[in-house]
Write a structure and sequence with these properties.
The chain is of the alpha/beta class. The protein has seven helices and 16 strands.
Amino acid sequence: MNKVLFVLHQKTSVPGDVGNKFRDRGYVAEICRPPLGEELPLNIKQYSAIVVFGAPGSINDEDEYINKELEWINKVIKTDIPYLGICFGAQLLAKCLGSEITTNKDGLSEIGFYKIEPTENAKNLFNSQKIFFQFHSEGFSLPTGCELLARGDIFNNQAFKYHNCYALQFHPEVNFKLHMRWLYLVLFKNPKNNSAGKLLDEAGLKGYSVGDAKISEKHANFFINDGDATSKDMLMLIKKAHKEVKDKFNVNLSLEVKLMGFNEEEIEGLC
């Protein structure tokens, strides 16, 4: 029996199209979620392949599970088991190999669909697809001894290979269903001489959620569906964010979007 291990980092995360590809080829999947307290398996060689997916935080965060994953991936590298790291999983591999994980020099992020350009030796790996979903604000330098497989405009290093290990900064697992879950709204207009995202961040709202409606941990003015958020969840989250900024900074944020399907009483105070 061919088994694949998927390492995910949120309760609601799924392996998407990557999982579908393995299933179609007859693999049996096991899932481990280290941030939720699940232990990474000691017997690595029981798996035919290992895939480590993205995470909402930064690899530079001081979370215990990150250090444990780095130690575990260092063990994986020493085996001949194929490893695929996606976004956060790619950065974990890069850091294990001596890379630095840093922000873009101009402070730019990649959130949305971006074109990547395969290197000459890697064109057969990507077939005809060159546009992939991205959601990150940090990238990796190319580790010593690795082969660059793809470049991008904002973050130059988009994919690399090290022996039997592959790293992809982008998200090949994102299909239509996942994309709909990951859709984000830029909720509030920037006040004069200020930033809505900065105010929301300083109000301590990054990562705050109501049900499955959540304020992104990457940018506080991105409101996302982190699973099966209802319109009520999203409205309550918007009201919470609006009130916190008003109470703490006496700034009345204006909406960038028009709220539909609510009566005047439900959206009172939001403009």
